[in-house]
Every structure is written in C-alpha cells, then in structure tokens.
Amino acid sequence: MISRLVPPHIAAIDPYPPGKPIEELERELGIKNSIKLASNENPLGPSPKAVAAVREKLTGLHRYPDGSGYYLRRRIAEKLGVPMEAVVIGNGSNEILELVIRTFVRPGLEVIIPNPSFLVYQLAVQTVGGTVVSVPLRDFTIDLDGILHAVTERTRLIFINNPNNPTGTVLGEAAFRDFFDKLPADVVVVIDEAYIEFAPQGSTFDGLDFTGSQGPWVVTARTFSKAYGLAGLRVGYGIMDPAVAAFLHRVRQPFNVSTLAQAAALAALDDDDFLERSRGLVREGLEMLYRGLDALGVGYLRTHTNFFLIAVPVDAKKVYEALLREGVIVRAMNAYGLDRFIRVNVGLPEENERFLQAFARVLERFER
Ligand SMILES: *Cc1c(COP(=O)(O)O)cnc(C)c1O
C-alpha cells in the first residue's frame, strides 16, 4: 500500500481542485464558445510588448535561463526604489509563497492564515508539516486583531492577502501600522499583493512600506499573472530585506524562472498603456456587473480587485453547474466555506453581458 509510505501530513492534504481544459468541458457538455470568468485572469490577453519579447527569445531556448534573473530584478528594483538584492523572482508568486514557507516553517511551528483566503497558503504549509492556525474573517475582511490574538511563541509566519482573494476586501495603512506595532519581532509576515494593481490608489496598504525593518520581517509578494496578463508563463516576485532574500536563494531551484517568463515580465513591467487598459476594463466592467446584479436584485460584495463574490440562493455548486451548461465558467466557493457564493472575475464587456444573461436564466430556473 503506497499510502503507508506517505507521511501523514502529506496524506492529509486536500489537493487544489484543478479545472478541466475548456475544450474538454465543451466536448463533454456539447457546447461551444464558453467563457471563463473563474481564475481572475486578464481578459485583454497578455501585454503585446510581452508577446513580442517572447518571440525574440524563442531561438535561444537551448540555453538555460539567467539563474540570477538579473535584468528583471534590476528593473523591478528600480521601479520600486529598493535595492536589487531585495528582489527574488519566482515561478509565479506562488513559488515565492512556497520559498518563504520552506525557508521558515518546520513541523511544530505555526502559520497564521486568515479564512477564507487564498487556498494555496494552507496547502503549502501542509506540505512541510507546519501547523495551520486559521483566523476567521470579520465582515469578509481580514481580522488583524484576531491575528494578533492567535500569535504564540510557535508562530513563525503570517499570511495577509491584500486585497483578499476571494472577498476582494482591503486593509488600509492605519490598521497595518497598529498591527505591526503590536506584533512581536520574531515573525515573518507575507503580504500577498497579487491584485494590488487593481486597488484604487490609496485604498490599500502597500507592504513595501515595512519591507526591510528589524522585524517583524515583511515579504511582499506580487505577480505578473493578473494585471499584466501573464498567468500562463508563471512569473512573480517578492520584495524583502536582502538578509531574508539570501535565505530564500538557498531554497530555490537554480533556474526557477524560464527565459520566456523573464523576458515577458521585463517587457510587461514597462507597458504602462496595457496596465492602464487593464485597470480601466476592470473598473468599467465592475460598474456594468454591479448595475446588472442590482437590476436582478442579487446581493454581492463590492470589491477592490478584478473579481467579486456574488450571493446565490441555492448551493453554489448547483449554480456553477447550471452556468457551465450556459457556457459560463465561474468558481463555486464551497471549498472556501462559502456555500452560498460564487466568485466571478470581470471579463470583456460582451463576456460580462453574457454572464448577466446566463445568470438571470439560471436564477429563474431555481425559482427564487
Ligand atoms: C492569482 C493569485 C496569486 C498569483 O499566483 P501566481 O503564482 O503568481 O500566478 C497569488 N495570490 C493570490 C491570492 C492569487 O489570487
């Protein structure tokens, strides 16, 4: 029995539910032209500058990538006004989260994770046998006081997703200042800012303000997967004190970010036009979706990101299934403990419209 060879903390993991390829779903359901609003991806596609940069690198694919990520790290550092040694790039920001966990956590140590938040935090902590300490949200917002109360001598790491996936809520500067004042120095705080580009300026706290203090140590994680439209390439980065970065480098693979991913990210970073269009599309799309849902009399959570939670009158899985048959892929929030919510990301205007129409039909069918 193979399961006897697997350590209990691995056997206990509930794997992240991967969706099927759209093509396969369509084949099974006998539908066409479905739209995906389930993974918070950028409906504009990738930055055109990134695509051009990738093309240029294709003939060099027989070489290993630059293991130091020199040009990308240098440009990120310039843009953010931090030393290059403070920047670690990763195979998606997911890898940054994992590197921090593998560097600091071992069995017997605790990691505080707000709930519901990004599912990956918990999974990654479980793979190293750390103890997850779950702190419920309050009013759908991360509860910093609750986190402070949960801190013990065994706490090594705290995850804060700002804005938070799946609720779309943000924490502001004042709350964070108070939090950091009260936090013991010997913990590492990961502030995952995967959606910070969508948050209206000034509405959210920027983790960089605290990076590089004496402790509590702050790692700010960001990604090219969302606002920059490069989810398929897998590239993100973390900003941290260079002393922290030096330990992450011991844990990471030597060539963790591919040549194409580095080139694309470097080009996307300076594509201000694309970023502005992405933000505008989300802003306008949300207005449209809010208006449509108001007209349907459906409840939802106003968001600071490119996705939001919508209340549904029956089990979210049923709504998910029904929308799927309409060719609209959303996320049921059951795995997050929100059985009466779906999460939908903003699409192109015509996709938003299709969602609203399909959703109206589905609600009708469930006879509210
Ligand atoms: C999408 C997302 C990320 C980004 O993951 P990548 O590995 O960079 O694609 C990180 N955190 C949260 C909360 C996310 O939703």
In brief, what are we looking at here?
By secondary structure, this protein is an alpha/beta fold.
Structure commentary:
The chain is of the alpha/beta class. It has helices at residues 8-11, 22-29, 48-57, 70-80, 93-104, 119-127, 144-150, 173-182, 242-251, 259-269, 272-296, 316-325, 349-365, and strands at residues 35-36, 87-90, 110-115, 131-136, 155-161, 188-192, 217-223, 236-239, 307-311, 328-329, 331-332, 341-345. Strands 2-8-7-6-5-3-4 form a 7-stranded mixed beta sheet, with helices on both faces. A 3-stranded antiparallel beta sheet has the order 9-12-11. It binds pyridoxal-5'-phosphate. Pyridoxal-5'-phosphate binds next to α5. Residues 40, 92-94, 118, 161, 165, 192, 194, 223, 225-226, 231, 236 line the site of pyridoxal-5'-phosphate.
Cα-based radius of gyration, to the nearest Å: 21 Å
**Percent helix:** 25-40%
Silhouette: globular
* Class based on secondary structure composition and strand pairing: alpha/beta
Query: Per DSSP, what share of the residues sits in E-state strands of 2 or more residues?
Result: 5-15%
Q: Helix tally?
A: 13
Q: Number of DSSP strands?
A: 12
If you average the pLDDT, what whole number results?
95
Low-confidence stretches: none
- Sequence of secondary-structure elements: HHEHHEHEHEHEHEEEHHHEHEEEH
